[in-house]
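Chain A, query sequence.
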Amino acid sequence: MELASNPFAAAIREGEKQIGLWITLANSYAAQAVATAGYDWVLVDMEHSPNDLMSVLQQLQAFESGNSSVVVRPVWNDSVLVKQLLDIGSPGLLFPMVQSVEEAEAAVAATRYPPRGIRGVTSTSRANKFGRVTDYFERIEDETVVIVQLETRAAVERAEQIAAVDGVDGVFFGPADIAADIGLLAQPLAPQVWDLIRPAAAALMEKGTPVGTLVGDPEFAISLLNDGFTFVACGSDSGLLARGADALLSRMRNGLV
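Chain A, predicted structure.
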């Protein structure tokens, strides 16, 4: 049995626009509800959601019913957790709060087997279909997406150096945290935030580095993709649920006489 190709890895390396959705409800049933919606990629979040290793595993299983590629964001740039996430079959990882070249190198090393990295070796895991994938060790490095998230002014200013680290497949800008870092807490779409992000993103695009982000405004998300961003998440499952519930109740109440 051969290792399956990672369509998200191939797509961002070819510059194909990828529309994403943030997955935060930490529930496999909720994951399956959106698995066949048709998003190109989904981000299963551990950093700001009540996910643990088992709930991530269950959501990976749920997303197998659809065609969305899964990226997992661990709670931190932690090689022990990364090892476990890879062993349960996470096809890609988004590392939060990467501030330096050294931290990017550590992220990549956590996803690589020795001598290129520090990932521990097991011959029987969900990732290699319990030993049945015969070319797993030869191909998994190329099929695992490694994305680093920049969340401060200092990190954005180092974007080109961080992106140049061997093994980094893409750079993700976190506008909410960048906004907070420059004194604009809860204003991720403020012009000052994007005046900081856009030049750095343009420089990366010029060098062929895939660039992504998450924004809650669909029109703004569309504009970013049209301006050269490769992978953009345009909302979250919890946001859809909350706003949909609000809108439905408001419509009902406004219709009463």
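Residues 7-255 form a domain with the TIM Barrel fold (CATH 3.20.20.60). The chain has a mean pLDDT of 98.
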